[in-house]
Design a protein that fits this description.
two-stranded antiparallel sheet; three-stranded antiparallel β-sheet; 10% strand; elongated; 6 helices; Alpha-Beta Plaits; 213 residues; alpha+beta
């Protein structure tokens, strides 16, 4: 019988302890942050430079090389850039990125020679339909960028190209190939097959059986 009343006492005590904690929050300052309306700094501005957010494209410095389209493992990038046989210039007719399929691996931005396609700090990609998540960057056909042998003379393009090259240097720095010592290389070299024909070996002459055998 004493155990029964002890259980009732423990139940009432724990209820009052829990409610005391609950009621104490009525007079405390709330810890919930109302995103994104009541934060002093945008979350996007606090993310590191190498953050892989939603992709963006600077068509002004896109060469139409299709390197990003080939590097994408899930084919979320579609580019149409035919080359004029007479002028030998490429025209960008289409540059689409399906954000709904993108897995933010960063392979496309690593192979871009000018940094035209790059990740941003934007991560809010939610929308009402999948069609609206298909980003079409080419509104009207434009000529692809042709890199100069020297520095870019157009100040506008030079600024965009400088940003792109800076992005490549910081986001995807070139890693030199490892140097293999000559001794190790010689040890791992497979000897070439000999082309010399083998020397024929004469078969032993058959002996004539002796008489009476």
């Amino acid at each position: 019988m004493s155990g029964y009343f002890a259980n009732i006492k423990e139940t009432v005590t724990t209820i009052f302890e829990g409610m005391a904690i609950t009621f104490s929050h009525f007079v405390r300052r709330p810890y919930t942050v109302q995103y994104p309306d009541r934060i002093p700094i945008r979350i996007q501005d606090t993310l590191p430079f190498r953050y892989r957010g939603i992709l963006d494209v600077d068509l002004e410095i896109c060469t139409g090389c299709l390197a990003c389209e080939r590097a994408c493992p899930i084919d979320c990038i579609v580019i149409d850039a035919p080359k004029d046989k007479e002028t030998r210039l490429m025209t960008l007719n289409r540059f689409d990125i399906d954000i709904a399929k993108c897995m933010y691996c960063g392979l496309c931005s690593e192979v871009c020679p000018t940094g035209s396609i790059h990740h941003t700090s934007e991560f809010e990609g939610a929308d009402y339909t999948l069609k609206s998540m298909l980003r079409r960057y080419v509104k009207t056909p434009v000529l692809a960028y042709k890199p100069k042998k020297g520095p870019e003379t157009d100040p506008v393009l030079a600024q965009i190209l400088d940003r792109g090259m800076t992005y490549l240097e910081d986001f995807a720095p070139a890693v030199p190939a490892p140097v293999v010592p000559k001794a190790a290389a010689a040890a791992t070299t497979v000897p070439a097959a000999s082309t010399t024909a083998p020397t024929p070996v004469a078969a032993p002459a058959a002996t004539k059986p002796a008489a009476g055998e």
